[in-house]
Design brief:
about 180 residues, single chain, 2 domains, Arc Repressor Mutant, subunit A
């Protein structure tokens, strides 16, 4: 089941990238995933459910990539991924109203997964403010930032939360990492 769901979500992303959010249909998702429509409907009832599942899976992927990193580096990494995510960029270009729905939060699986991931990253540092951090991260979905502005913003955000963030000049650049 998990492999089938992952394949469906991969197909949904490919369909979204090729056709945009409005023109993508359930038939397209099934075709891009290489499955029968009935298989798709066994996992997702509507296109909105597919896209919600896609957001939740992407949040889980980014959270896994951030696990074990220092908090400031994790924030920078997450914001950079959100700023450059091809699916989000396509939604922003084709359907700004849908993008607005994504970044305004709510109780959808993507938002809940993001809230849990942020809370899990803040708690070991003794910090609260998961909604503030989540809103800062979601601002990079709507308005992508440069690496420099993201680093500065992450340092300021952590300082405002009472966390110890290294100054931007002390943070390694992407090219400094191996």
């Amino acid at each position: 089941m998990p492999r089938t769901r992952a394949g469906l979500l991969d197909g949904a992303l490919r369909a979204l990238l090729k056709q945009g959010p409005r023109r993508t249909t359930m038939t397209d998702v099934a075709a891009f995933a290489g499955v029968a429509k009935a298989t798709l409907y066994n996992h997702f009832r509507t296109k909105d459910d597919v896209f919600s599942g896609l957001v939740a899976a992407e949040v889980e992927t980014i959270a896994a990539e951030c696990a074990g990193r220092p908090l400031d580096d994790a924030l920078v990494h997450a914001a950079l991924r959100l700023s450059s995510h091809p699916g989000l960029r396509r939604v922003a270009a084709d359907d700004p109203a849908a993008l607005a729905m994504l970044v305004t939060g709510g109780d959808g699986p993507g938002w809940q997964a993001a809230r849990g991931a942020v809370r899990a990253a803040l708690e070991p540092a003794g910090l609260a403010g998961d909604d503030l951090v989540l809103r800062w991260l979601s601002s990079h979905v709507a308005t992508p930032g440069t690496e420099e502005s993201i680093r500065e913003g992450a340092a300021d955000l952590l300082a405002g939360l009472g966390g110890s963030a290294r100054r931007e000049r002390d943070l390694p650049t992407t090219t400094d990492r191996s």
